Amino acid sequence: MVWKRIPQSFDKGRYAFSGKPLLSGNMYLLLPDEEIKEIIEDVRNYVKQNGLVDYIQVYENKDSDRILCIDNISVDEIQEMKESGKFTEDEIEACNYWSLIFDYNYSTNL
Asked: Which residue among 21, 53, 96, 107 is least packed, with the fewest CB closer than 10 Å?
């Protein structure tokens, strides 16, 4: 595998990465489909093996490029939406996604 998951400082969280993976536009242009599929599969396997995890998982290649996998919604938030009765299953499903984005495209200083 070209990309390796980097252990995070917070190894536990309330995120399952159970939703649909969404890719930033340039990722489609810069990465082969096989590498993208490997990252998606690795995130899902990591969650299967470890249970709920932190909302962000980071992957790095040999050139020190990084990809951030960021879960949009926790299992607790999904459960709250279901229990509230205010949301249809389709609406809940629409909120349940996670993003794959290069770290240089992600800024916390908005």
From this structure: 107
pLDDT-derived band at 109 (thresholds 50, 70, 90) equals low
β-pair partners for 60: 4, 66
d(CA 43, CA 18): 10
Q: What is the pLDDT of residue 82?
A: 97
List 100's β-bridge partners, or say none.
23, 69
pLDDT in tens, 57-92: 999 999 999 999 999 999 999 999 999 999 999 999
CB-CB contact of 106 with 67 (8 Å): no
Query: Which residue in 77, 75, 67 sits closest to 38, CA to CA?
Result: 67
Written as one letter, the residue type at 11 is D
